[in-house]
Each structure stands twice: as C-alpha cells, then as structure tokens.
Design goal:
Elements (H helix, E strand, L loop, with lengths): L7 E2 L9 H7 L3 E2 L10 E6 L4 E10 L6 E6 L9 E5 L16 E6 L5 E8 L6 E6 L11 E4 L10 E6 L5 E3 L13 E2 L1 E3 L8 E7 L5 H11 L1
Antiparallel strand pairs: 1-4, 2-15, 3-4, 3-6, 3-15, 4-5, 5-9, 5-13, 6-7, 7-10, 8-9, 9-14, 10-11, 11-15, 12-14
C-alpha cells in the first residue's frame, strides 16, 4: 500500500510486544459478570463486524498523520490491549467501577497513546478519523469518550457504545478494509448516527477487583 494518500505509512519502529506486559499484571480472563473497573486492561470487540480494537506504530498517510487505529479479527493479537482510565487519576481510581455516562480514556498498552478523534476525514469511508494520540498516556481533551450503556455500571458482559465527548460521534466499524502494509485490517472511525456498527463488548483482559466502596453499595442494594 506504501505511502499513498489515505493509507497508513509503514512504521519506522517495530511495535513493542505487549503480551508479556499484560501477563505480568495477572492472569488473563474473559469478560463475564461484574463491572469494568478503572485500571483494567481489556480487548474490545466490535459486535457487528467481529473485530477487536487495535493500534500499532503505523501512521495515517493522510488526515492528521497520527497513529492509526484499526480492527483486527485475531483474538490473540498482542496490540489490541487498552487500559481503562479517567480524564485524571482522581476521576477513575484503580478498582472503581466505570459508570454508564462516565467519560473515560482508553490508552493503548503497546504504544502509550490514547484513543482520540478530531475533525479529520477517515481514509477509507470518509467518516471522522479515529487515531491514537499523546505520549505515555498524556494527551488532551480529544481523548475523552463517554461510555453509553444501560443501568448504573459498564458491565463486562454487556454491549456498549463509546461516544466522543467533544464531537459526539460514536466509535464505529462499517467494514472497509485496508490493503498493504496492514492487509485485512478494518477501518475504525467515528459516525454521527447511532447504529449496530457502534456496539462494543469486552472480551479478554485483566480486570482490577472492584473497590470496597462498590462492594458496600452492592451489599446495601441487596438488603
């Protein structure tokens, strides 16, 4: 695919292996009952197109020129891990369940850049570009995404949407596929309309245990 306009440019560095980093955090597990908590490291599956949210040190050849974000079908891909964080550490303390309607950041474990969007056009579909931005988890306000779900908390086994806090688009996949050098990967972009292309589900990951405050809330709710 080369450096043609509208296509990612091959990276200058080999992506950092991250599987060892994930395993160092604890035993991997699939999504299941219980809330997604701050500090968890997860893979997110687009339910409609069966691809996991992915990034790598490959930059867009058009638009912003920032690090590209794609969807991959391989469940064992090491570049599909994202850490769940808040706008600030105080807003999303480790082990605190993420509430529906809460603004979060998703930081790519391998490169330390945040899921990001802005008013550039995506290279294949012409929707809004989604990229990975920042260094070592430090980015800007365009890294904020609102978790859209039903109920009180983002449940591991539920399908949710992520709405960009500044431009209101939904994180989406509609099936457009790249050629070389990332052949077969799907474009991830932002769409203004809510649809089946917007839904995501937690799959594999490392889940931080819920905080004592959450456990107390659950106990009182059951009384």
């Amino acid at each position: 695919m080369g450096a043609a306009a509208g296509r990612p440019v091959p990276p200058g560095l080999v992506p950092v292996p991250v599987l060892a980093l994930v395993l160092a955090l604890g035993a991997a597990a699939r999504g299941g009952p219980g809330p997604v908590t701050c500090g968890s490291v997860v893979k997110l599956l687009n339910v409609r197109h069966n691809v996991r949210l992915h990034s790598h040190d490959v930059r867009y050849g058009s638009g912003s020129g920032q690090q590209s974000v794609t969807g991959v079908s391989a469940a064992d891909d090491g570049n599909s891990y994202w850490r769940v964080r808040g706008r600030t550490a105080a807003a999303c303390q480790r082990g605190t369940p993420v509430r529906c309607g809460q603004a979060i950041r998703l930081t790519h474990l391998g490169t330390g850049r945040n899921l990001h969007s802005h008013r550039f056009t995506s290279p294949l579909s012409g929707n809004q570009e989604v990229s990975a931005f920042g260094e070592a988890g430090e980015g800007d306000y365009l890294d904020d995404w609102t978790v859209v779900c039903s109920g009180t908390y983002w449940a591991r086994d539920s399908e949710v949407r992520f709405q960009h806090a500044s431009t209101d688009v939904f994180l989406s996949v509609t099936g457009e596929q790249y050629g070389r050098p990332i052949h077969g990967q799907k474009e991830v972009h932002g769409m203004a309309a809510s649809s089946q292309n917007n839904y995501w589900k937690v799959m594999e990951g490392i889940f931080m245990q819920p905080s004592e405050v959450f456990k107390a809330e659950q106990y009182h709710a059951e009384l």
